[in-house]
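Quick log. Single chain, no ligands specified.
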Amino acid sequence: MGEGSSTIFMIVFLVLIFGLMYFLTIRPQRKRQKEHEQVTKELKKGDRVITNSGIYGQIENIGENSVVLKIESGATMRVARNSILGKQAE
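-> predicted structure:
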């Protein structure tokens, strides 16, 4: 009887560890991913944004998978839509 209860305890312990990992890592990551998708869906021409690489610019044109940014020097550059980190703080 001692071995059986030890096995059950070990299984319960492993389930608790996996549940804790889910709530501490996977769930918050999915939440951030959904928030990022929402931000990129709401982008529109004229928005001032920052990219993952730290480039600040204003949206000139929006495609399905890419965005054309006008940067401070007046040059334009095309970046992947999912590389937009978010809108600039006012």
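Helices lie at 2-41.
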